[in-house]
Structures are given as structure tokens and as C-alpha cells.
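Action item from last week, closing it out:
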Amino acid sequence: MKRIVLTLLSVATLMSCSKSEEYTAPIPYLTITQTGYTCESTTSQIRVEINSNVNWKIVQQEDPNPWVDFGTTDWGIMVWVQANESYQRHKEFKVVSEDGTIEHTLTITQKQPEDFVPGEGEDTQLSVTPNYLQFSPNGGTKTVEVNSLTLWRILEETETYPVEMSITPISGTGKGTVTITLGEDKNVSTRSGETERIVKIVSGSQMVELRITQGKIIDF
């Protein structure tokens, strides 16, 4: 009888140890103290603090005229910004976890010098090509070219529409390609004609309207 009791106690002890040794993987996280920075036209340094338990990397588009440089540290990213002698400018880059599951977009805007004077006849010269897009009821993806001498951005829509639309990127400097994706209009059979929405792109004191329509399929 004593032998049986000892055996049961041994099994209970082994089960207890097994449960205590079970490993629970930590939840991955990657946080950034601030995602948008504005600096003066002079040479600047920006400290971007990152808290993470995963490996991460910086991802950015190739820039033929780079004015921002990065360096990684044990506390995050140090950003060096060159002096600006022209229009206000904008830089966007991403901090992405090694496996790509966590992503943050950081933006840096550098002001133009207070004494900056554009050349004769020179302005932001904002243009959008084409300035009209037509989608079928099924939706889809189209692109436009935005060109400006300085920072441009897309204003957020103030009206609510039945079809979801995404626009990337929503800002930039100089020449850039903007991608517009429009969802399916599932209620198109209940109305006639086209649905129209206006996207406004601004740069300095200039504004250009991009007209977008989504039409109804006509059966013959």
C-alpha cells in the first residue's frame, strides 16, 4: 500500500514540474514614440525612440537627391537632416519588423527658409495627370501622376460615400505616382447614372481637383 502511494506522489510531482516548464511565447511588439516630425530649414538631428522585442529594419524608396540619412542605435533611430535652401520638403520611410507583421510609417517635413524667394514666375506649379478617372461598377485600381516643385498632399474627403476608396501615398514632394483603388459598387442596380467624387490635391496656395466617377453597366 505504501508503494502505491509513493508511486502516485511521484507521478503528481512529475506533472507539476511539466506544467511549470511550459513555455509561452511573448507577444511581439514594435512601438515608436512619434511618427511625424517637422524641423526647421537648418541642419537638424531627430531622435526616434523605438521599443521592441523583435528585430526591425528601415525601408524607404530610392531617392536620387537624398537629404535625410539614418543611423540605428540601441534605443532607436538617429536621423540627420541636411539644410534646406528651397521649398518645404517631405520624406517618408517605414520601420518594419523582420517578419513584416508590424509596420509603422514615419514622416519628416522640413520647412523652407524664412527668407526664401521663388524665382521669377516660379510657383509650386502643381499638376495632376490625368485629372479625371472613370471606374466600372466592379471598381479597380488606377494611377495618376502628381508633379509639384514642393510638398503636396491629398485632402481627406469630407463626404461619406457608399464605396470604399484608398489612396496611396497621401503626400509627397516633387513628382510622384498616386494609386487610387475603388471598391465594388454593390448598389449600382438601385440607381441610374454615375457616382462622382472629387479628390483635392494641394501644394502651397494651389489646388487641383481629381474627378472620379463610377458608372452603371447598361444591359442591351
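Closing note: The domain at 127-214 is CATH 2.60.40.10 (Immunoglobulin-like).
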